[in-house]
Specification:
heterodimer; A: 264 residues; mainly alpha; Rna Polymerase Sigma Factor, Chain: A; 2 domains; 14 helices; 70% helix; B: 154 residues; alpha+beta; Alpha-D-Glucose-1,6-Bisphosphate, Chain A, domain 4; 43% strand; globular
Chain lengths: 264, 154
């Protein structure tokens, strides 16, 4: 591998890398910094790349280590993150003023429930232990194999299986107990509430019909519904979607609320 | 899958102590069994004998355990030995729980034992419930979860 080849290959998966780091850190600034630092490290260490894995796996490994270094000292978010942030936002008119301005003026200011589902997963998955969160995203959203994840995390495949099984089980239970889209007893209606604020003329049911997960909630198992949730994440680029600016504003707000809540 | 799904616990009673042991083969990588035994916050998810477990299972760590044996009581325990993928011991002044993993060609031989006792043991021995069923359930739950993970393709 030469430097000349690194740059164009890096550019092919740079978008995925940036969204992966965003979903780990919940910070646009950290995602941008880590992607840049990853490129610099990959460039500097290129002579150590032996081609035992793909370049993409190797680069994701560098980025994962940087994200781990950043996040290791930070506290995990509580599973109730969306409730905490909702309460905080209700007492903060500035949050809604900024969001409504983005909604009205930005080409990336649409509100779509599926985009909020992706943001919700990003926030709730930060309640998982770091290695579990990494493994879950790498497998379920970015499609890496067990072997590749083992290489990225520098763990055995057996441990990767453990991380994946545990994190999936945990997230399936959390969403089943919380999300009213998939369980009528669910206590969280935030995505439909926000739809009412940002799309006042649009009926919630019309919006929900677009989402396979909500349509199939009564017929599918918890595991299948989780897979549909993952499919939404796979198909969305949080930096490029039609709702990107609105959702990133929301994510940034949640991160600030969590940092205050956790005393960081 | 290993057919030994109903492990049998054995209790040896003495004047000043009581020791319960259970062991069974688990067809899973030792690291999976070890991870299940040592990730404290995850244990109540797969282990039906544990009501709650807080703290960190690491060398010198302290944990607080609520078991189905007595849900009103919180056991405050110290991790006394921590040898990854081989041996874990936790306990208090009254006794110790020992977990050991012996690597085999098709997985691990898992053993768990707990010895309680002391000079005053005869006075309260009858008040302590039998551990046998709880131990058997613990081992069966561990085997089921570890073999499920080992066999998972996800």
């Amino acid at each position: 591998m030469t430097t000349d080849k690194l740059t164009p290959e890096f550019e092919i998966f740079q978008g995925e890398l940036k969204s992966f780091i965003l979903r780990m850190t919940a910070s646009v600034q950290d995602a941008e910094d880590i992607v840049q630092e990853t490129y610099i490290k990959a460039h500097a260490k290129l002579n150590t790349f032996r081609g035992e894995s793909s370049l993409k796996t190797w680069v994701f490994s560098i980025a994962s280590n940087l994200a781990r270094d950043l996040l290791r000292s930070k506290k995990r978010w509580p599973e109730t993150v969306t409730d905490i942030c909702r309460e905080e936002s209700l007492g903060n008119p500035q949050f809604f003023q900024e969001a409504l301005q983005i909604r009205q003026t930005s080409p990336q200011g649409n509100f779509e429930i599926k985009e909020h589902i992706a943001l919700c997963f990003t926030c709730v998955s930060k309640s998982l232990p770091l290695e579990q969160q990494l493994a879950l995203l790498l497998k379920e959203v970015y499609g890496f194999s067990m072997k590749e994840i083992a290489s990225i995390l520098n763990q055995t495949e057996a441990m990767v299986k453990y991380y994946l099984h545990t994190s999936r089980s945990r997230m399936i239970e959390v969403f089943d107990q919380r999300c009213s889209l998939i369980n009528k007893q669910g206590i969280c209606h935030q995505c439909t509430e926000l739809n009412g604020i940002f799309n006042p003329k649009q009926k919630v049911q019309e919006e929900l019909v677009k989402i396979e997960m909500a349509k199939d909630a009564e017929n599918k198992s918890k595991e299948e519904l989780f897979d549909l949730r993952m499919k939404i994440l796979q198909e969305l680029d949080p930096f490029e979607s039609g709702a990107a600016e609105l959702q990133l504003h929301h994510l940034e707000y949640n991160r600030q609320v969590m940092e205050k809540y956790l005393g960081e | 899958m290993n057919q030994q799904t109903n492990p049998k616990a054995v209790t040896e009673k003495r004047m000043f102590s009581r020791e319960t042991t259970v062991s069974l083969n688990i067809e899973a990588h030792p690291s999976i069994v070890w991870a299940l035994l040592t990730h404290a916050s995850d244990i109540p998810r797969w282990n039906s004998t544990v009501v709650s477990l807080t703290g960190e299972i690491k060398e010198g760590g302290a944990i607080e355990l609520k078991s189905t044996l007595d849900e009103k009581r919180v056991f405050k325990l110290k991790v006394k030995e921590f040898v990854p993928e081989k041996r874990l011991v936790w306990g208090d002044g009254m006794g110790s729980r020992v977990y050991s993993l012996d690597k085999k060609s098709n997985g691990v031989l898992f053993s768990m034992s707990e010895k309680i006792g002391g000079p005053l043991f005869p006075l309260f021995a009858k008040m302590i419930p039998s551990f046998d069923r709880s131990f058997e359930q613990f081992a069966a739950d561990l085997k089921k979860e570890a073999e499920t993970i080992q066999g998972s393709k996800k």
